[in-house]
Amino acid sequence: MEVKNSFLIRDLNLANIYKLIHKLGPISRKDLADKTDYSSATISNHVKTLIKQDFVLETKKGTSTGGRRPVYLKTNPEKGYMFSIDIEVNQVKIVLFNLDLKIVMKNIIPITNKSNSEEVIDNIFKEIDSIIAERDLNVQEILGIGIAVPGLIDKEEGVLKFAPNLTWSDLKICELFKNKYNLPIILENEANAAAIGEKDFVYPDSNNLVYVSINEGIGCGVIFNNELYKGASGNAGEFGHIIIDRSGPKCHCGNNGCWESLASENYIVEQVSENNNLTKKEIYHQAQAGNEEVINVLNRTGQNIGVGISNIINSLSPELVIIGGGITAIKDYIFSDIMMMVEEEALEVSYDKSEIKFSELENLATVYGLASLIFNEKLVFSK
């Protein structure tokens, strides 16, 4: 890390104690010692350091069990902040989190010219600058910036390799943000970030899960043995390009009948717009109004989603499949069709051990995942 601020803290024991207070607080020093291998003296010394650096606050006193009343500790949420930037196809979510991983501000800016990446990035910079000014933040208070994109990335180089629905390629996105803010930058695929968000904030005890992000395209984030599975290229999880119908429509990847060409929101718009010129939002309103033609398209989409999920269950045998993205807006119209196909096509031995749910974090799973990544990867402690 090049940025020289209060987050350059490199003591592992200090970090462990801080994160334990973050997870379990308010908690007393005695309870901290009981839950770790550290001595009471070590706990006391490290807590003193954390309080002095303003990372930890003393709060209320507990009930005495014979000696002094214990003083409870909690982390200071205003010690630092982090930005999560979720670049979607038609809009960008810009969310400011505090160190308690709570949302402080959330703004959405439209993408009016998605083919012009320079314009989109410049608008993101303007919005970040506006939030920093509005909150009266010092850049040294910012732990890092997380960026999620709907496409293939080279995480080590910080490059967005290809985002087909944005028509962006070979964009040195981390370099652009680093040059602007000189802060730690994390780049991640949006489905991977969402998988981490659901895992860390909703299903911490689930060790094997797949997050299926269905928007204009389909991407998947895979948590395998409690860790994000990335594969040799770093881009594992492109289940949107499994072929479910060789005679299906041409996909932008060059193949015919890919899952995302038959089960994404783009598929819905294309099917309905053969006879109408409706937006996605208008189509969903038509379904709510009882338009049978639209509902039939949604039912068919649900069945196609179910085929893809069956392949995931048969291949990976996850304990949990989470469906997220814009498609959750019509979950009531597609869930029974999804389950019908999964029950028909998934192997019973794997299906019996799997659960299918819609995202609890809904359209914020990705930004929560980015905040968790920044917190865990960029908060490094020193005395």
UniProtKB/TrEMBL annotation:
The UniProt record lists the keyword Isomerase: no
GO BP terms in the entry: D-xylose metabolic process
Alphabetically ordered keywords of this record: Carbohydrate metabolism, Kinase, Transferase, Xylose metabolism
The keyword Transferase appears for this protein: yes
GO molecular function: kinase activity
Protein family membership: Belongs to the ROK (NagC/XylR) family.
Function: Transcriptional repressor of xylose-utilizing enzymes.
Protein name per UniProt: NBD/HSP70 family sugar kinase
Organism: Halanaerobacter jeridensis
